[in-house]
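Entry 14. Ran structure prediction on the chain below.
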Amino acid sequence: MNLILDIATALLVLGLPVGLLSWYMSYQLTRKGYLDSGGTLKQKRSDVGGLKKSIKAGEAAPSNFLEQRWMKFGGGFYGLTALTTFFLIELQDLWGFVVNFPGFGNLFGNGVIAFVVGMLVNQLQNIITSFIWFGYWAEGDRNLLVWVLVPYLAYLAGLKLAGKSFSEIKQKILASLDNQQTDSDA
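Output, structure tokens:
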């Protein structure tokens, strides 16, 4: 695959969701006092690792479903990318199910137990696939390095913006665009 196309695809398909989820999770952790909004990226990454250890030791508890899943998937960059991959696989499965709905007769043709077992096996496959997300995203002729670096940079960007609300980020972007417009007019 063309490298430019691979980078663009990785940005849209994985980088954007990882970056947004990284910002959201980091913003929530900053609001709760687990992350220092003015800290360096190294400090924030260390704080996330400390939070994971505190949760494992029972000294802290994740306060919502996303935090709990993130820590279950390993916390940090790897865990967040695995969680994002899991959600994206699940969305793809749900979309495929809705679009290609086989009808209730086919769903339960082998019985309710077979249906439930099939769903559980599918969930297990999706969880395993999300844990080895780098192989999932780099399948075929995709560049593995691109599919690891793009979400990593998106994760770091989300951490960097952790102390800022969405409206603050939007204001900074608009101000930057205004400055660029003013500079080009001059």
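The chain has nine helices and no strands. Will compare against last week's run tomorrow.
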